[in-house]
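Posting this for the archive.
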Amino acid sequence: MRSDIEIAQQTKVLHIGEIAKKAGISEDDLEYYGKNKAKVSLDVMKRAGKTGKLILVTAITPTPAGEGKTTTTIGLADGLTRIGKRAAVALREPSLGPVFGIKGGAAGGGYAQVVPMEDINLHFTGDFHAIGAANNLLCAMLDNHIFQGNSLDIDPEKIVIRRCVDMNDRQLRNIEDGLGGGKNGVPRKDGFDITVASEVMAVLCLATSISDMKERLKRIIVGYTRGGMPVTAGDLKAAGAMAALLKDALKPNLVQTLEGTPAFVHGGPFANIAHGCNSVAATKTALKIADYVVTEAGFGADLGAEKFLDIKCRFAGLKPSAVVVVATVRALKMHGGVPKTELTAENLPALEKGLPNLLRHVSNITNVFKLPAVVAVNRFPTDTDAEISLIIDRCKMLGVNVVLSTVWAEGGKGGEELAREVVSLCEKRSEFEYCYDLSLPIRRKIESIVTKIYGGKDVVFTPEAEEEIDRLEELGFMNMPVCMAKTQYSFTDDATAIGAPTGFTVTVRSVKVSAGAGFIVAFTGNILTMPGLPKVPSAEKIDVDENGVISGLF
């Protein structure tokens, strides 16, 4: 069996100019990055005329067995193309942290991939480097301001901006810098986040123009004065230089699937610690060149889909026409308590026990957000007919169809049935609703997410979180959506609570405002904004030969 990277490297792909031409994008709107990738002008997004239908792909709560959300997204787009529809893909860029960490590559799999997968998984067009540079420039200007006399009276103990690097490096989570005194800076406690967790990443993914991005950058809060007032990047006069670093990164990246479907891969916030969606610019650009745009939101629907709908769609004025919820029999059996080593044997009782996880996600989409949905089951060779029938029967009780997907093995051909179901769903009327109203107090919005989406009973706020919420509301930050920072492995804030728990309480330990992005971040459990490497990182398997051919990326 060929690996993902071998399949990608052995597939003949079109010059990216041909993909652009097929999508109706002119040469004047392209900036080539070699033969296989290009930046697309923001002017395409601003075109007058028809806008396509948006399809969101989400999934059940992740497990080590895997769900295949990105693979399904790509295969569905290829399936739409195969049945004669003008389709495009809109995905996030992979972070180097997971690529070299526990996950490996992240550009789809099997015969449902976006290419060039090596470039996409590694440096790509340099977007993440630009985001890290802009973030760290802001940090440098902040520390320089304090060193040069601190005319804004910034309290070094109340600095909230952190440096970032796109790598899983736990050693940098909490540091002390500026050591040595004198010209070496002002000593203080500091730390690093992974780049995808930075507010600059969120700003880039939500901005729709350079001027919009500059205004958002100006609003980023770096710390507070000794009197408790916020200090922003605008106060430090840093936004212009940051925007200069980001001007090219703001433009969407155009690549292609293995079958030549246009794909926009741009932005990459994690869904467990950030809002988990690709950029608004990429999504809106795709909607201008295709009749059907398939996009995904990170991790399970309780995280990525909730944030996609309550944050991204709210800001961008988007409304999905259909939602696909991806599941595997293997993953559902894990939610039923089966260890990963025993997933190949038929186990209907365990599947029955794990199914509530899928059904809750589907119910949230159809009953909370009022959107039409279909369940896509990535069928493995070990799945039995009885197991598949059980999933179909239970979903029918919710009035939701189930489609078997074989896109990993068959590419677009394996996604044709799912494509036909999605086209049918897109023709149905729906009354899209948000989970909460922006006018609610911050606590009420958090409680709405926990009770309506997670299935929890209550929210407990630590004294620190209570104080922070009170301060943010006093400063006028109440009417913002909430971005929950929570484990991806459970509906709860306890990563070990699998399935679909009920009656639980979620603890919010701290809260901060991302004023530039435009949302409140609520941190729960032991969520980390800088991951670490596993005992055997994927980096150990990645290599490059004398001809520059990379191996080990899946």
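The mean pLDDT is 94. The chain has 18 helices and 25 strands.
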